[in-house]
Hints:
The protein is α+β, with helices and mostly antiparallel strands. The protein is about 25% helix and about 25% strand.
Amino acid sequence: MNDNILSLDPKSLSQPDLHNYLLTSIAPRPIALASTIDSNGNVNLSPFSFFNVFSSNPPILIISPARSGRDNTTKHTYQNVKDVGEVVINIVNYPIVEQMSLSSTAYAKGVNEFDKAGFTQVKSIHISPPRVGESPVSLECRVRSIDELGSQGGAGNLIICEVVMVHINQEYITHGKLDTTKLDLVGRMGESWYVRATGEALFEIPKPLRTQGIGIDNLPLPIRESTFLTGNQLARMGNVEATPTQEQIDKVRPLLITNTDKDIHQLIGSYLDKDEVSTALALAFTQV
Ligand SMILES: Cc1cc2nc3c(=O)[nH]c(=O)nc-3n(C[C@H](O)[C@H](O)[C@H](O)COP(=O)(O)O)c2cc1C
């Protein structure tokens, strides 16, 4: 139990403080570079990190251009989507991150941020707004609904859109699949921080077993209460399908050269780090 917790009623906080707590903790967020047009055909391009996919059948994305916390104005993207009902969501990766940031400048209505940020306009197939030629993936979308969440500064506007066309730069495809390790995506963190999904920042976790793992609650008590093993390490053992047999437990016993909890738990940890989970689990069950 951690007693170093600050518990806050959102109603007691100023809008900028609450904004900061939420946006710094709910991160990293993917970035949608949204291309829209107004009813006169003027093109607009702006980034939004209130963005995600919420369904693949039908394919649904949501972005939220919020009312300004400073002066309560609405974003051009929101006005365009309300008027025209179409948007291209362009995915942002590291090679275009600074151009994306430049496109977030509050240029006057009618100014085309493709030009300001040096992006190439490419004609869409099903809708009127153009896509960003430099994006690894662009999604042509029709707007299904708009939910205005409030009327004060900081209020979001949920734009729910359905993808009608997907464009993928084949440079990012390996064996017919979009390749996470090649995409070099970026995410928005709090304030002006970003994160880059590349190299050592990427890691895989084996999916939980369909057949169901034993769960941390079935590990021996001294292991569950270990101050040397982490929650991640316990979860890796909890993802094993069955508790070890007596034979498996007896087989690993000679590995226990000392008897202190610290040594035993660190030995279990070292087998987990080497991905030898069944040995680690058998060692854990010597502690029943
Ligand atoms: C990475 C990034 C993410 C952003 N995410 C949002 C967002 O989710 N919602 C929002 O209202 N503004 C967001 N902004 C700010 C808008 O991009 C900015 O207000 C922009 O000028 C709006 O342009 P528009 O009025 O042409 O639509 C973000 C800016 C950056 C750089």
